[in-house]
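Render this sequence as a predicted structure.
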Amino acid sequence: MNFSTNGLIFQLSEEDRNRLQQICHSVALTEGESLCLSDAKAARKVYFLASACVTLWVKNPDQASLAVGLIGSEGAIGLGAALGQNAEHLRFEVQKAGQAWCADSHELQQLLQSQPTILWAIARYLWQMTHDIADMAASIQSDNIPTRLAAWLVLCATRSHSQQLSLTHDQLARMLGVRRVSITLAAVELKELGLIDYKRGEIDILNMARLVKQAHGGTPAAH
């Protein structure tokens, strides 16, 4: 696994990459694994993702958790710990198993204090992540379920670099915070438009360009 596979790391200078690599080691993340738990030792870890994808959940005390983001090889999770922050209402769950680079948050914090160029790169990434979460929140409030499903499938394909996705209707219903039957109806609609095909636990994106248009609120004509 190449250290620069991660997009955030790739942006750093060679000198900063070498400094960061000295405090990182490779780890294998498994599907369904919870990371950066606030009450566990894992809370002190930062993961720069390579081939794994991790879902960002917001925990609601009155309702089920809701997925508001998906992080892949473009970024990292657990950065808040290195910045002295701990968001107890956030939860990270591995959606796609794969590899990551892991650093102790205290060691990363020390590195950031001595290397502001790394801190600047992380600040830019966190700002983009905030923007993406805001877009997701706006979609939850205003878009219908087929549009939200299309947007989530586009995001999954982008983060995993694959148009063949291992996702069940139950998983998608949990992520979007809707009933399973709503996902089934939305998937049927997207299938009839020729955008996706699916079988148990597998979704194939057939037309990414038109699925992207659907995700942005468009209504492409069926074949």
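Summary. Residues 3-139 form a domain with the Jelly Rolls fold (CATH 2.60.120.10). The chain has a mean pLDDT of 90.
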